[in-house]
Design a protein that fits this description.
Aminopeptidase; 24% helix; single chain; 9 strands
Length: 183
């Protein structure tokens, strides 16, 4: 799926593409991401995409995606979604796409460096998850658990908080409903 992300240095939108997670995505993780993640937040050390891909890559109810800027063709973000077994915390009758993991490249994180290379990577991935939810007949509803340092990101996108979830390490749970508003 074609999309755009914001290049901070040039202050322009640049073409990007969201693709199925594949060997190139893993190679980018190993080559460009891994060494930059190690010294960062401890919460993210366990987000090893090699392990996640091995664990979830062959399961029918999980889908993994990567977003690349078209000029460099380097993975700028990755997301793992679950498409069959989750329901809304606000209305148990409604099915949702659950965002198991979403991550932007270390060089795109404003909380880890003053000038990220690209912005809107996470937002583009969330929009894609919402689009998948629509495709599956779930009315564009997505849900996720947030790391504490990412909660403001989801609040700014007007995602609805259901509060801390004791079943998920007290992480705050958020949902987004397709109201026609942009994320």
């Amino acid at each position: 799926m074609k999309t755009q992300i914001y290049c901070v240095a040039d202050q322009v939108l640049v073409p990007a593409e969201i693709k199925k997670f594949n060997q190139k995505s893993l190679d980018d993780f190993i080559t460009f991401w891994r060494s930059r993640i190690q010294p960062q937040l401890q919460d993210e050390v366990y987000w090893n995409w090699l392990d996640k891909y091995r664990m979830y890559g062959s399961k029918d109810n999980y889908e993994a995606y990567a977003i690349e800027n078209e000029s460099e063709q380097i993975t700028q973000g990755m997301m793992l979604i679950e498409t069959q077994n989750h329901r809304s915390k606000f209305n148990r009758k409604r099915r949702i796409v659950y965002v198991e993991t979403i991550e932007t490249a270390p060089w795109n994180r404003p909380n880890s460096q003053p000038d990220p290379q690209f912005k809107w990577v996470g937002t583009a991935l969330l929009r894609f998850a919402q689009w998948r939810s629509e495709q599956l007949g779930y009315d564009g509803i997505i849900g996720l658990h947030s790391l504490p340092e990412s909660e403001n990101f989801y609040k700014k996108r007007k995602m609805i908080s259901a509060g801390q979830d004791p079943k998920k390490d007290n992480l705050t749970y958020f949902e987004w409903y397709n109201t026609g508003d942009e994320l």
